[in-house]
Amino acid sequence: CVVINLNGTLDIMTGRKKRAPDIIEESYMTWFWECINRPYRWYRLFVLLYGYLELIYIRLFKTPKKKKNN
């Protein structure tokens, strides 16, 4: 977690990325600002979410039922 924060700080200090406007930072919406400015991240998040939901669906509805021994 420290590395991620340090990496973002270095990007802003070197001028590679712009800071979010003050109103966005004050409302703690910097994550939303990053998603708007880097739309290629949306695809990655969608793939992860889809895979996770698919695993849940398989676990809940596609697992074979255990047979009772009479």
What labels would you give this structure?
70 residues, mainly alpha
Give the low-pLDDT segments. Answer: none
The coarse overall form would be elongated
| SSE order, one letter for each helix or strand | HHHH
- Integer-rounded radius of gyration: 21 Å
Protein topology:
Blueprint: H1 2-14, H2 22-26, H3 30-37, H4 40-61
Describe this structure in words.
The termini are far apart. The protein is an all-alpha fold and 70 residues long. The radius of gyration is 21 Å and the shape is elongated. The protein has helices at residues 2-14, 22-26, 30-37, 40-61. The chain contains four helices and no strands. The longest helix has 22 residues, at 40-61.
Give a brief description.
By secondary structure, the chain is an all-alpha fold. 69% of the residues lie in helices and 0% in strands.
